[in-house]
Amino acid sequence: MLTSLREIIRYRSLLRALVARELKVRYKRSFFGIAWTMLHPLMMMLVFTLVFAEILKVPVEHFTVFFMSAYLLWNFVAQTTSWSAGGLLGYAPLMRKVYVPKAVFVIATVVAGLVNLVVSLVPLAVLMLVVHHPMRPSLAFLPVSMLLAAVFALGISLLLAPLSILFADIVPIYQIVLTAWLYVTPVMYTVELVPARFRPLVDLNPMTYFVELFRAPIFHGHVPTLSTLGTASAFAFGALVLGWIVFDRYSDRVAYHV
Amino acid sequence: MAPVRPAPERPVVDVRDVTVRYRVPHERVPTFKEFAIRWMRRRLVYQEFLALSQVSIAIRGGESVGIVGRNGAGKTTLLKVIARVLRPTRGTVTVRGRVAPLLELGAGFDPELSGRENVFLNGALLGRSRREMRERFARIVEFAELEEFIDAPLRTYSTGMVARLGFAVATDVEADVLLLDEVLSVGDFAFQKKSYDRITSFLKSGATFLLVSHSPDVVRELCSRAIWLDGGRVAADGPAGEVIDVFTGSAPAAPDAQAAGAIAGE
Questions:
Q1: A34 — phi, psi (to 5°)?
Q2: Where in the sequence is the domain holding A223, given as residue range(s)?
Q3: The dihedral sign for the CA sequence B176, A252, B212, B173
Q4: Number of structural domains found in chain A
Q5: Is B86 in Cβ contact with A256 (below 8 Å)?
Q6: Whole-prediction pTM value?
């Protein structure tokens, strides 16, 4: 693992080029450009606020901030992992021509997602100002939250990327999984609202803790509890180790397939 | 068939017992759904194709080795395994030192980007830093003779210009091991002469050298040793002249691997 890490550092100029390309390709040819990163969560917020705060009457004050603080983090993990699930396939012709440490492609996707996450904090800040939600010093904790979520997203991405090359329908299957996953994550409801018999489902869900890492400092105005932080770290590094093992073992088959 | 001479040093390229096996499914099974259905019905039948079969080659520093053989004999697969593009199904490959793979020139070239941007992108794909590429940039462009066109998009280049640029980037490097796959026929006659000179200057600097070529004359001239691959196996390994003679003599008929292998032991 250490030699692979050293190799990835040697290919840092490729990593930079790939991140730049991911960001450029994503916004090229779109009228709003980078503004999409900010508009997308705002639109989702309008829809979900209408349904959950107005129609279903979820008893949360400042539902917009409550939702956004969790949804931005959710969106980061969901998007980077699904990009990675399909993304390696596009680089397959290249990988049959020249040796490149293949993890670089996955890492680039996660870094590009991280840039998007930081950009999408701008509309969140505007929203907080508009609805007069207090901004507390606990916001300084966000870099730690983002880093842990990125480690988790990288682990899941490494796990999915080789699968997408073996089976072409992993991407649509994963899309369905993601939709179900969103609804068992307390993004649009609080953990307290979940009936006792469904609690284990929420408690065993890693995303519950990552979402909380983001929501606590933004919405509740305090740093996450130690148990949340510990559980999230365990999930993050557990996913990374598992993903690394699978990726290391199967990513070399790319050259044989397709 | 152990080498009689004791190796004076550790080999620079050490290919040990390498097997590359492609599995070709009878019908394509590209989706998980189909895979699951077939698997349940126990109908996953693969056709196996051995591109390389238990190949062992040790190359010492400074040797220049030509690889000959007919189409589909595994020559390119062997170079790909050494360049780490392909991980062998079985066996190990150890390379000591920096490798310059000249297998596919201009990997990752993007037609929409300018020549300049492509030089940096190609360099990044070969694992070189931006600073290193900046230092080498002027020399690369000069060698490729593309000073006037370097800021034009690559799609406006002719095939020969693209190939020259790829060759210039790939060879502007300090390498211990050079892998070449039929790339000496790039560009027009004058450029071929230039690239030939560059390759021989690598040879003089003591670099180790592996070359795949269909031209026996090129191997005879550039290489001291030759390996004849046939059907994924080493059919002969020895001084270039002798191996070439056996190989060219065998060309039309089905080669007898056992008999040819005899000279390998010498």
A1: -60, -20
A2: 2-255
A3: negative
A4: 1
A5: yes
A6: 0.82
